[in-house]
Amino acid sequence: MVERVICYRAPSTRAEIDDVAAWLEGRIDADVTVRDRFLEVHRTDDLAERFAEARVSSPYERETGNAMLGTIRYEERALANPDREGGVLYDGEQIQRAFNAAVPEDERGLETLHVAVIDRAIGTWGDHDGRWHKRVTVLGQPALVSVPGLYEAPAKPEAYYKEKQRHALLSGDAPPREVLENQVDGEFLIQDDPRTTDALKGYVLQALDYLETGEPFCDREGCRLFDAHYHEDLIDAQLRDPEFCTEHARLYGE
After folding, report:
1. HSE-up of 162 (CA within 13 Å, CB side)?
2. Residue 200 to residues 7, 106, 126, 205, 248: CA-CA distances in angstroms?
3. How are the residues of the chain apportioned to helix, strand and coil, as percentages rounded to the nearest 5?
4. Which candidate, 20, 3, 11, places its Cα nearest to that of 201?
5. How high is the pLDDT of residue 235?
6. pLDDT tens digits, residue range 14-39?
C-alpha cells in the first residue's frame, strides 16, 4: 500500500508539478509532496556517467552508451544547466536504475512512490520490431515521466507525416517542427503546450496505480490510465471528460 507519493519538479519545462500533486492528492489515500528536480535532490557522483551509458546511439541498435570524455562532459553540463540539454534519447530503464540507486535507502520501500518528472527524452527497446520507442513513462520505482515524451512519443495525425514527406521531397530536408505544427490541422500537443500540466496528471496517477495493482495501464480508451499511442487518443484520455472509465472512477473519481 502506497502511503506517500513524492513528485519531483522539471524546472526547464512548462509542467506545474504543484498543480499535478494537488490534483493527485484529491483522488488517492496517500500523502502527496513535491520536491525540486530529482537530479538536484538525489545527485550522485556517477550520474553524468550513467546518463552517458544510457544514450541511444541508433534507433535500430540495442546497445547503448558513449563513455567518451566529451560525452560525459556534456552530461555534466546538462545536469548543471538543464535548459541546455536536448535532442538525446536515453534508455529509460537504465535511467530508472540509476535514479533508484540515488534514492536514500530509507525511502526505497514501496510504501513511498517517487515520481520523477524529467526534461529528458526516454525510450524502451522493442524486441518485437528491433527498434527503440520513445515513451512518456517508465513505470516502477522510481517512476519516470518524460515531458518531452508527452510531445514526441505518441504518433501525430497522418497529415503531419504527409506534410513532412512533401516538404522533404520539395526541399531535400526535413522542415522545422514548428513549421509543421503551424501547417497541419489536427489535435496534438506541441512543445511548451499550455495543456502540458493537465495532460501529465493521468501519467502520474498511472505510476501510483501500477505500484498498487501491478497493472500497467487501463485498456479502455478515454480513461486517464489508458496507454495512448496516438496524440488524438492522448488528448481524449487526458484532456476530455469523463476523466475515467467506470472502474477507475470508483477508485480515483472525485
Report:
1. 7
2. 12, 28, 24, 9, 17
3. 45, 15, 40
4. 20
5. 92
6. 899 999 999 999 999 999 999 999 99
DSSP state of 175: P
90 strand-pairing partners: 55, 122
Please report where in the chains the cell 499511442 appears, as a residue: 229
For the sheet containing 112-118, what is the strand order? 31-35, 4-8, 112-118, 143-146, 137-138
C-alpha cell belonging to residue 92? 529509460
Q: What pTM does this model have?
A: 0.90
Determine contact, residues 181/171, Cβ cutoff 8 Å. Answer: no
Other C-beta atoms closer than 10 Å to the C-beta of 29 total 9
What interhelical angle do 231-239 and 196-213 show, nearest 10?
80
Chain mean pLDDT for the chain: 90
Residues 249 and 242: their CA atoms lie apart, in Å, by 9
pLDDT tens, position by position, 219-235: 999 999 999 999 999 99
Cell numbers 506545474 label which residue? 16
Parallel/antiparallel/unpaired status of strands 121-126 and 131-135: antiparallel
CA distance 174 to 246: 43
CATH of domain 4-154+189-252: 3.40.390.10
Ranges assigned E (strand) in 11-168: 31-35, 89-91, 112-118, 121-126, 131-135, 137-138, 143-146
Report pLDDT digits (tens) over 103-115: 999 999 999 999 9
The three cell numbers of residue 219 are: 485498456
For 81-107, what is the mean pLDDT? 91
Grid cell, residue 182, equals 503551424
Terminal-residue alpha carbon distance, the chain: 20
Q: Which amino acid is at 111?
A: E
